[in-house]
From TrEMBL:
Descriptive protein name: Protein translocase subunit SecD
Gene: secD
Domain SecDF P1 head subdomain: 303-431
Similarity annotation: Belongs to the SecD/SecF family. SecD subfamily.
All residue ranges annotated as the SecD export protein N-terminal TM domain in the record: 2-103
Predominant location category: membrane
Domain of life: Bacteria
Provenance organism: Colwellia hornerae
Amino acid sequence: MLNKYPLWKTLMVLFIVAFGALYALPNLYPEDPAVQVSGLRGVEANAATLDSVKSELTADNISFSSIVLENGQLLVRFSDTEQQLRARDLLEESLGDKFSVALNLTPATPAWLASVGGTPMKLGLDLSGGVSFLMEVNMSEAIVKAQDALVDDFRTDLRGEKIRYRSVKKANNSINVQFRNAEDLTAAHDFLKKRYRDFLMSENADNLTLSAKMTDQKLKEVREYALQQNITIIRNRVNELGVSEPLVQRQGKKHIIIELPGVQDTAKAKEILNATATIEFRLVDTDGDLSAALNGRVPASSKLLYERDGKPVLLKKRVMLTGDHIVDAGSSFDEYSRPQVNISLDSAGGGKMSNGTKSNIGKPMATVFIEYKPTDRKDAEGNTIFEKIEEVISVATIQARLGKTFRITGAGSQSEAHNLALLLRAGALVAPIQIVEERTVGPTLGAENVKLGFQAILMGFGLVFIFMIIYYRAFGVVANLALGANLVLIIGVMSLIPGATLTLPGMAGIVLTVGMAVDANVLIFERIREEMREGKSIQQSIHQGYDAAFSTIIDANITTLIAALILYAIGTGPIKGFAITLSIGIITSMFTAVVGTRTIVNAVWGGKRLDKLSI
């Protein structure tokens, strides 16, 4: 029988639309203004923190809807933004610098809906609010770190060529190598000049010193590498934070712009993004005199550092391994339920660790945590001077020869172990960075954008709705039902996909798909009219109309989908937001405009003897 679907096909269409409606439903529940309290540098919120926050809010007559302690964080919900802002100011003052207090918009999805994975769509910075950072890379420190690495390279290369030297030191913008005799000076000059063509080599025969200075081109390469590598590492860290549709791009010669939409914990984001943490592995100097070192007489080949509890440790200056060779890191617990960080090295790092530990089994090895913190001082070029902080986080005896995988303990808490693993996994910044500008897009502006965007969608939908009813009558109602189902499916799919984010350009993509969806129905309905004018029966006209228009609809939508996928692949930020809603809209519109409308048409008109058709 013409134009009759079997029951299973009709039920399948209804199930898909109902499924999309279920996961679009969380978007009907407005978000609650909230304040999130989380610890810094390994501190976690606990029951005592919860009681303290409750008493502070109650004493200041600030009403709150609920307060929940979960995963070491407190989430306090409020009924309006006025109470939220008052609470933020109060808690920032009362909790001190051990906790971050961040504004947050928290979904109010019912528990039964959340239990089946229902969550509202993620909104971009222009809709949900968020934070934008302008960060400056400290190029002076980048050059200093490059010189430090070159000092080690010079020593290794000269030893490899068996050229004896007295010392290799860093001085201003050059590296000075002092030799014992003129023959070694000449041999080193010839060798290093060939190996390091980006350096200007000069000899001083009077004090047997070779000076190597970076050329302007080499300095430019170092600065460019520092900027590009920092951008890559920051992108990795943003990905670890789980921020949707982030924007990380360079601006000028030493600045990076970072936009984090919907960030819940601004202080935590700043701590992770700004951190320059890395680790080094050094042998403990068991032969040195610790008492003499504490009195200022530190051996030339050693270095005095301290553990977190203030215990001094005398270490060898020579570094066994740096964090540059770490390819993966994760946090877990050891057999005594203490937090630990599991580390995997690249092949070069595994070789260095193996060579460094094979002859030192039974000796203590220290894990040194290093980070740079900005000070109030400036250098001659106006750049912020960073203070290097070194801290021993663990000292362990080498039990066996280590390879590409091993673990370190002493992180303090699970939260701190997690943060350390995140930083090591994402990579250490090549040069320290500092935030020179921070802009916060408030939820009020985002709410206004959401309101105006949905007004545009509803206005476009309404005009199409009226046109279709006037021009196609009953079949226009069918097309409008399909349009409504299409909109529901787009929102449902956007809510389901973890990486999908709705932005203002994304709303434009939804409006465009509304027009494209109705365009498919226009092709079908006009073809049905044409078949009827040629004298075919109504059932034959409906059947031929859908079948003949199908290939045209597929061709038109596939070409548009290819263009949308290219936009998503090469675009960034707003372009991706537009491309993803357009791609989803094309797929759902093909389903609703062809399969959805035909299901309704078959159910209402299919298999019946008709004399006329309202089209």
